[in-house]
Design brief:
With about 425 residues, this protein is an alpha+beta fold. About 15% of the residues lie in helices and about 45% in strands.
Length: about 425
């Protein structure tokens, strides 16, 4: 019995080191597998973060403009590299108070827009805006540019360019202007959204106190001008006639962070060497010139904005005749004038000083006259000479979303007033 017991103890003593060694090897192998798994997870996490950063960051745009573009369109410039996606949308309901029974009231998904950009390197950036209007009834490219970022004071841009005039042509997302509709001055004389094919330079000077843009673009198509303004002369980058070119420049100065002062100008022929099919007459050069001056104040919840613009069309009498407009009737004018001023104030800051919400009642007065000086031999269309009062409110639960309501009264020199009640919603991402 003793021998048997001693034999078992001897056998255990001989096998125990081998078992412990095997267990130790198994533990080391398990630790190595865990370490390898942790390393792979860390690599995967870094790759996912890099992909997320390259694809669409920031997720919500900082509400600042880069290189003259709106905040959502500026996202691509803030990436390290890769693809950026953004956009905006707006819907509007309009009821015509003074025209009951006219069946003019309407509700419209006015715009759904996608910004898509790609940052190839720190110096080469593609940016674009694709717009679906009226729930997809119209699809267009609002701009598509290739930027070469050389220095703060001198960068190059080529492609379908937003013409840098006025407040809303470049920054036209609904959270960044008051009223459900864009100002008439910036639709009929400065024909937003206005884009043409071209190239040019842009940059900032004196520590970003001064910002400029200087482009050469294809000119207007004068056959689209009318008594109501220049809007029909836009070529929009689609098979644009390029017999005549134009130059446009803009200069903005911010002497204080709260104050913006600026001017812009455009000049170029618009005849495009065309012959009107109806009359068989050649269109004149129709040199078209626009300029505007603007100012804005944003201070402690107070918003003030004003703009004045003037447009002239040389040889307007010959242009009217070539387009078949009979002498003695209303036609394209030689001179057009427009201006507006608006004021708004954020009252929510007094109710909740730390909230990101804003509630801004506003008022805008606007005057548009696309018949300021009639062409020789033609008369003014008095229905195109009007002024309007718009009073409303803009509510933002967050900075990227806006709810709007306003009442607009439009009075023409001749004709009935057109009172409107407008409701709108807008967002940017």
């Amino acid at each position: 019995m003793l021998r048997s017991t001693l034999g078992c103890l001897l056998l255990v003593a001989l096998l125990l080191p081998a078992g412990l060694a095997a267990a130790s090897d198994a533990q080391l192998a398990s630790d190595d597998r865990i370490a390898e798994l942790e390393r792979k997870l860390e690599v995967l996490s870094e790759e996912l973060e890099r992909t997320r950063t390259a694809m669409a960051v920031p997720e919500s745009p900082a509400l600042e403009s880069d290189h003259g573009l709106g905040p959502a369109a500026s996202k691509v410039y803030r990436l390290t590299s890769g693809l950026s996606l953004g956009g905006y949308a707006e819907g509007i309901y309009t009821a015509y108070v003074a025209d009951k029974g006219s069946n003019r009231n309407e509700i419209d998904l006015l715009r759904l827009v996608l910004y898509a950009g790609y940052k190839f390197t720190d110096r080469i950036v593609f940016n674009s805006e694709i717009e679906f209007e009226h729930a997809g009834e119209e699809v267009s490219v609002e701009f598509a540019t290739l930027d070469f970022l050389l220095a703060d004071w001198a960068n190059a841009r080529v492609g379908l360019l937003l013409v840098p005039m006025g407040f809303v042509n470049e920054i036209h997302e609904p959270p960044f202007y008051f009223g459900t509709h864009r100002p008439d001055v910036e639709r009929r004389i400065l024909p937003s959204t206005w884009r043409e094919n071209g190239l040019g330079l842009f940059g900032t000077l004196l520590g970003e106190t001064i910002e400029y843009r200087l482009y050469g673009v294809n000119g207007f198509d004068a056959s689209g001008f009318s008594a109501s303004g220049l809007r029909g002369g836009r070529q929009k980058g689609s098979e644009a006639l390029a017999e005549d070119f134009a130059f446009v420049g803009r200069l903005d100065w911010k002497p204080l962070p709260e104050l913006l002062l600026g001017v812009s100008g455009y000049v170029g022929n618009a005849g495009q060497d065309q012959i009107d099919a109806g009359t068989g007459l050649a269109l004149p050069d129709a040199l078209t010139a626009l300029w505007e001056a603007h100012a804005q104040v944003r201070w402690r919840g107070l918003h003030l904005r004003g703009l004045f613009t003037r447009a002239t069309v040389e040889q307007a009498d010959r242009l009217n005749a070539a387009l078949g407009t009979a002498p003695g009737s209303a036609g394209i004018a030689e001179e057009m004038l427009g201006a507006y001023a608006e004021i708004a104030y954020d009252v929510w800051q007094w109710l909740a000083p730390d909230s990101e919400m804003t509630l801004e009642p506003f008022y805008r007065y606007e005057w548009v006259d696309t018949q300021q000086t009639a062409a020789s031999g033609y008369v003014r269309d008095e229905t195109q000479r009007n002024h309007s009062h718009t009073v409303g409110v803009s509510y933002k639960p967050i900075p990227n979303v806006v709810l709007k309501a306003d009442y607009r009264n439009v009075k023409a020199q001749q004709g009935s007033p057109a009172d409107e009640i407008n409701l709108g919603i807008g967002l940017v991402f």
